[in-house]
Amino acid sequence: MEQQTTADAEIALMPKYLDSEKAGNLDKLIQIDLSGDGGGTWWLKIKDGKAETGRGAVEKPDLTLSAAAADYVQILTGKLDGAVAFMSGKLRVKGDITLAVKFGTLFKRPA
In CATH, what number is assigned to the domain containing residue 28? Predict the structure, then answer.
């Protein structure tokens, strides 16, 4: 039986999976707004090839990603492609669209 994971747990793991080479000299602040069971608001800061996350809203994020918590967990775990989620309306993007397109390539999860 497959173990269920939560948005909180998956977002907390994001810094561990950041590809520092691809992140390069990015200095960006991303807000993640998730609805439904396990939802909430998180922030992700990428700077100097490192990332950190936390709970809560931030002022003037470069990018805001919005989705149902269950859909976002599927995106983070590779079960739902981020571009497909965006095109189907499951993932909404506000702000830096170029960063949104690059966002999925910045993280390497083990298979």
Answer: 3.30.1050.10
User: Which one, of 19, 44, 15, 9, lies nearest residue 108 by Cα?
Assistant: 19
36: Cα within 13 Å, side-chain hemisphere? 11
The pLDDT confidence band at residue 2, using thresholds 50, 70 and 90, is very low
**pTM, entire model:** 0.92
* Whole-angstrom distance, CA of residue 47 vs CA of residue 98: 17
Residues of the chain with pLDDT > 70, as a percent, come to: 95
Cα–Cα distance measured from residue 27 to residue 7, given in angstroms and rounded to the nearest whole number: 23
Angle at 105 between CA 41 and CA 13, to 5 degrees: 45
